[in-house]
Amino acid sequence: MQKFHRLHYAWVIVAVTFAATIMVAGVRATPTVLIVPYRDEFHWSLATISFAVSLNLLLYGAVGPFAAAVMDRFGARPTMTLALAATAAAVALTPAMDQAWQLIALWGVVVGLSTGFVGAYLSAFIAARWFATREGLVVGILTAGFAAGQLVFLPTMAALSTSAGWRIASLVLVAAVVLLLPVIAVLMRDRPADLGLARYGETNQSRPAPAPAGNPVTVAFRALAAGMRSRDFWLIAGGYFACGATTNGLIGTHLIPACIDHGLSEVAGAGLLAATGVFALVGGTISGWLSDRCDNRILLCCYYGFRGVALLYLPFALDMSFYGLTLFSMVYGLDWIAAAPPTVRLLTGVVGSERIGIMVAWITVIHQIGSALVAYFAGVLRNAFGTYFEAFIISGMLLVAVAVMVLFIGAGRGREPEVEPAIAV
Fold it and tell me: With bands split at pLDDT 50, 70 and 90, how would you rate the model's confidence at 212?
C-alpha cells in the first residue's frame, strides 16, 4: 500500500491518455483494412476511397490547434469524452452506408474531426502540464500509443472483416470505443493542482497558468503567428510534412493494397503493418528516452534517413518473399513514430513550453496535409501506372532530402535554440 502512494497521479494520466491514443489509432487504422472490401462490394474506385481517407487525415490534423485551445479552455476530460462519443456514433452508422458520399461524410469528415480532438498534440500537452522532468520519455510513450493501436486493431479488424464481414468489424470497433468512455470520465484530470499536487519532478507545487480567456480560434492563430516568425519552426514543420506523407499517408493507407497487388492476402498485409506497429512501439519509447539526452537534430537526421532508405528498398522487397518484407517492417517500424519526441523537444526550444500543445497541433496540421496529399496521389499513381513503385521511390527520395534539411535547425551541438516563448492569450 505504501508503494502505491508513491505513484504520482501523473502516471495514471499517462495510462489513461495512452489508452485513448490506442483507441484513436485503432479507429483511424480501420479504413486501411476496409479499402478492398469497400471496393469489392460497392465497386468504388481506389481514388474515391483514397479521397475519403485523405480527407480524414487532413481534418484530423487541421482541427488539432483548435482542439488544443478548446482543451486548454474547458479541460481534457470533457473534451476527450465528447470527441470519442462522436467517433463512436460515426462508426456505428457505417454499416448502414451504401453511397460513396456517406463514406466521405462519416469517415472523412466526422471521424477525421472527432479523432483530431485526441490527436498528436495530446502527448506534448500532457507532458508539459503534468511533468517537470522526463517529458521526452512521456511524449515517446504516448506517441507509441498510436503504434500500439495499429498493433492491436489492424489484425483484429482484418480477421473480423474476412471472417464475419466489414459491418461486424465496424460494430466491434464501436463497442471498444464505448467501453473506454467511462474510464476517461472517471480517471482523467486536467491539472496536477486539481488534486493538490505539483507536477512530476517538482518539489513545490507551482501556481498553474490561468486558462486562456479568449476565443479558442483566436488563441490558436496567435500562437501560430508567434511561431511563424522563426525559421526553425518552418524547418521543423517541413520535416513533419514529410513524416506524415510517408507514414499515415503512404504506408498506413497503401501498404495493404500494395501487398495484395503482389500476391499477399489482406490478412498477411495487415499482419505486416501490425508488425511495423510492434517495432514502432519500441522505437517511439526508445526515441523518447534518447530525446532527453541527445542532440535532437542528429536523431531526426538518422530517423528520416533510415526511413527514406527503407522506402527505396520497399518496391524490391515486395517482389521477394514475405520474409523480405520483414526487414522493411523492422526498419520502418522503428522509425515510424520515432521522429515525434525529438520534434517536440526542438519545437519547445523554439516556441516555449506554455503553448507547446497548440504548436505541436499546428505542425501536426502540416504533418496531416502531407498525409492527405500522399494518401490521395499514391492512389492516383496506382491507378495510372498499375503499381505503387513511383510513389515509394519519390517518397524515399523526399525523406533523404529532409534528413539533410533538419540538420540546419538551430545552432550548436546538443542544445536547441532559445527563443522567447510564444504566449497566446
Answer: low
Inside any domain, residue 206: no
Residues with Cβ within 8 Å of 102's Cβ and at least 6 positions away in sequence, in order, are none
Would you say residue 21 lies in a domain? yes
Residue 202 is assigned to a structural domain of this protein = no
- At 392, the amino acid letter reads F
pLDDT at res. 39: 81
Residue 128 contacts residue 72 (beta carbons within 8 Å): no
- What's the pLDDT at 392? 92
What's the domain count of the chain? Answer: 1
pLDDT confidence tier of residue 423, bands split at 50, 70 and 90: very low
**Is residue 404 in a domain?**
yes
User: What's the domain range around 71?
Assistant: 2-195+211-408
Residue 414 confidence class, pLDDT cut points 50, 70, 90: very low
Q: What is the 3-state secondary structure (H, E, C) of 208-222?
A: CCCCCCCCHHHHHHH
Tell the burial category of 332 from Cβ atoms under 10 Å away from its Cβ (0-12, 13-18, 19+): buried
Q: For the domain that residue 133 is a member of, what is the CATH number? A: 1.20.1250.20
The alpha-helical segments, DSSP class H, found in 6-134 are 9-42, 46-62, 64-74, 76-93, 100-103, 111-116, 121-130
